[in-house]
Amino acid sequence: MFLVVNVLQIFVFDAWGIPFGLTVGIFIALILLYTFKGGVKTIIWTDTLQTTFMLAAVVITIILISKELNFSFSGLFTTVFTSDYSKIIDVDWHSKQFYLKQILSGAFIAIVMTGLDQEMMQKNLSCRNLKDAQKNMFSFSFVLIFINMMFLFLGAVLFMYASKEGYSLPVRSDDLFPTISLKYLSPVAGLMFMIGLISAAYPSADGALTALTTSFSIDFLGLDKKNNLSEKQKTHIRYMVHISFALILLVVIVIFRAINDRAVIDKLYTVAGYTYGPLLGLYAFGLFSKKQLKDRWVPLVAVISPILCYFLSEYSVRLFNGYKFGFELLILNGMITYFGLFLIRKNNVVAIK
User: Fold this and answer.
1) Residue 251, Cβ neighbours under 10 Å: how many?
2) For residue 345, what are the β-bridge partners?
3) Separation of alpha carbons 14 and 291, rounded Å
4) Which of 253, 246, 270, 263 is nearest to 5 (CA)?
5) Backbone torsions φ then ψ of 291, nearest 5 degrees
6) CB-based contact 306:274 (threshold 8 Å)
7) Distance from CA of residue 271 to its chain's centroid?
8) Distance between CA atoms of 118 and 51, rounded to whole angstroms?
9) Among candidates 25, 34, 62, which has minimal Cα distance to 203?
10) CB atoms within 10 A of CB 266
11) Predicted TM-score (pTM) above 0.70
């Protein structure tokens, strides 16, 4: 959502004199309105429509750029495939982009950010039975491959177009798509970009807010077990939790914009390496060990692990002979958490499964 709101702020709302915080507030307010009205069912339908518009915008943009470059689609595909932009394998093991690091870290990022994600869990729970939920997961996985390839292809096309036309590249790669769509291509391309951009914002933000509300209400507040409260009271509490997380999201986005100095996706996965690492370690310990834990020490382990990873990442070049940590930091974080949990296990006590 940050990327979407940031682009709209730069190209639209700055000209109107609207501050960034207010722009974010408007977007979050719209999300609150339709999630209050329809809950998870609304999110599923809006996600479907928004994703359709987003992918349509990508396809139409590629077609428009191919015409600007005087290429047929097959010719454009061949040009991209034979260019340096299609080279994705880095064999230097010191590099952050070393291919083995990318494969391993990508697999584990998919596990923690999708497989262990509350938002995805909620969507699977909306399926009528286990078989439908399994179909949903498998179809989602295969479709995602083609969607990722489509966006990689679009990125290469954008760089090729900018290079051929002699346009100066923006400081951050995140600004390349909006700059070309809104400044250099036809108004149709700009319109499709705006539609796709807005469509991309809501699926992640509305699902995240609803997932946080559900998790906090059940796992922390235990609303499902409080029989002394009426359904109306429980609903009011859930509304307050939902609004509270919306405000937190607003503050986080504003702070992130102030401190961010590189591509959002790069920063996102770097942060995920620290925040999702303890979750990976906890999941692995629960999966492979039958030992019970001394629960009061678990939060300490979950905090110490990313701190250790941060220092290892900062000083890795000196400590490990020029080695630079990339997104595989997530795996290291999970391993440290797992080892820490092993140290705080209850001796000779086996959990009841």
Assistant:
1) 11
2) 293
3) 56
4) 253
5) -75, 145
6) yes
7) 10
8) 19
9) 34
10) 16
11) no
- 86, 77 contact by CB (below 8 A): no
Token reading at 211:
């997932």
> How far is C-alpha 263 from the chain's CA centre?
13
Summarised one tens digit per residue, pLDDT across range 28-62 is: 888 787 777 665 566 667 667 777 777 887 888 88
Structural contact between residues 201 and 81, judged by C-beta atoms closer than 8 angstroms: no
- Three-state SS for 46? helix
In sequence order, the 6+-apart residues with CB closer than 8 A to the CB of 253 are 1, 2, 5, 24
CB 91 within 8 A of CB 239: no
The token duo for 3 is 């990327």
- Which tens digit of pLDDT belongs to each residue from 176-221? 777 787 777 777 777 777 776 666 666 667 667 877 888 888 888 8
Please give the Cα distance from 300 to 284 (Å, whole number): 18
Instruction: Give the alpha-carbon dihedral of 222, 225, 226, 231, to 10 degrees.
Output: 100
User: Could you give the C-alpha distances from 175 to 42, 169, 171, 263, in angstroms and in order?
Assistant: 31, 9, 8, 9
- Cα gap 196→57, rounded to integer Å: 5
